[in-house]
């Protein structure tokens, strides 16, 4: 009788031990999953960084211009007048007006320098202006930012007669007063023809992500001062 009572009692409460064992096993599995996820994240991060370095090396090898590698040390607050700072300045031959790019495309241009640092106006600044052309049709316009969407730039002064289409690449124009020709702004993301307007409303998706910019290059290039002088000369 005692054995029967004991076995019944044990069978009634034996599930508690199994439940506690299962909880311990679940905790162990969760810890293992967290560790594996962390290892996988680090592996993916290392692979992405390696791919980025390969792209940077390829970019340096393909451009004809002298590039100064820099690091982005601070960024603006995210309003319409954004700026960011790089760790190179006048002591490194950086001058106001020089372009700043990365391997994906245009980031901005230098607007202020000290001996060891420089302030850059990025394309996400409502004061930013740059001449650009659309490949392969060579239609020229001016790139600006309207101050709202960070994933869209505007290409202005494109005639509605131009056969422009989404997916076309927009690059800096030879007529630019800041950028040498051929650096990528991005791809055409939208084309609209408003009634009564002579120009198209063209949107561009930027190739270079400012929120991801940690390393960049200053293009040690300034336009011909004689050309800039005659371009700005008023004719009576």
Q: Termini, distance in Å?
A: 122 Å
Give the low-confidence spans: none
What about the largest sheet?
6 strands, antiparallel, barrel
List the helices and strands in order. HEEEEEEEEEEEEH
Tell me the number of strands. Answer: 12
Q: Which strands sit side by side, in order, in the main sheet?
A: 1-2-5-4-3-12
Q: Could you tell me the radius of gyration in angstroms?
A: 29 Å
Structure description:
- The structure is a single chain.
- This protein is of the alpha+beta class and 236 residues long.
- It is built from two helices and twelve strands; from the N terminus they run H-E-E-E-E-E-E-E-E-E-E-E-E-H.
- The strands form two sheets. The chain has a six-stranded antiparallel beta barrel.
- Strand 10 and strand 11 form a beta hairpin.
- The protein starts with a helix and ends with a helix.
Describe this protein with a few key phrases.
single chain; alpha+beta; 2 helices; 236 residues; six-stranded antiparallel barrel; elongated; six-stranded antiparallel β-barrel
Short characterization:
With 236 residues, the protein is α+β, with helices and mostly antiparallel strands. It contains two helices and twelve strands. The longest helix has 61 residues, at 2-62.
SSE topology sketch:
Blueprint: H1 2-62, E1 67-75, E2 84-86, E3 99-102, E4 105-113, E5 118-122, E6 130-135, E7 139-144, E8 153-159, E9 169-172, E10 184-192, E11 199-206, E12 215-219, H2 225-232
Antiparallel strand pairs: 1-2, 1-12, 2-5, 3-4, 3-12, 4-5, 6-7, 6-9, 7-8, 8-11, 9-10, 10-11
């Amino acid at each position: 009788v005692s054995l029967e009572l004991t076995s019944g009692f044990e069978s009634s409460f034996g599930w508690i031990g199994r439940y506690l064992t299962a909880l311990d096993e679940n905790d162990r599995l969760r810890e293992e999953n967290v560790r594996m996820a962390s290892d996988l994240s680090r592996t993916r991060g290392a692979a992405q960084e390696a791919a980025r370095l390969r792209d940077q090396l390829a970019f340096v090898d393909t451009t004809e211009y002298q590039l100064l590698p820099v690091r982005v040390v601070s960024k603006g607050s995210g309003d319409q007048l954004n700026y960011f700072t790089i760790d190179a300045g006048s002591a490194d031959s950086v001058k106001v007006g020089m372009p700043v790019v990365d391997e994906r495309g245009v980031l901005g241009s230098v607007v202020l320098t000290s001996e060891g640092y420089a302030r850059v106006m990025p394309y996400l600044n409502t004061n930013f202006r740059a001449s650009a052309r659309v490949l392969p049709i060579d239609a020229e316009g001016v790139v600006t930012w309207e101050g709202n969407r960070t994933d869209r730039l505007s290409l202005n002064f494109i005639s509605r007669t131009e056969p422009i289409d989404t997916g076309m690449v927009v690059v800096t124009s030879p007529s630019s007063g800041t950028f040498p020709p051929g650096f990528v702004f991005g791809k055409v993301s939208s084309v609209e023809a408003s009634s009564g307007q002579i120009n198209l409303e063209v949107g561009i998706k930027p190739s270079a992500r400012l929120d991801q910019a940690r390393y960049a290059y200053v293009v040690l290039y300034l336009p011909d001062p004689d050309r800039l002088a005659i371009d700005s000369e008023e004719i009576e």
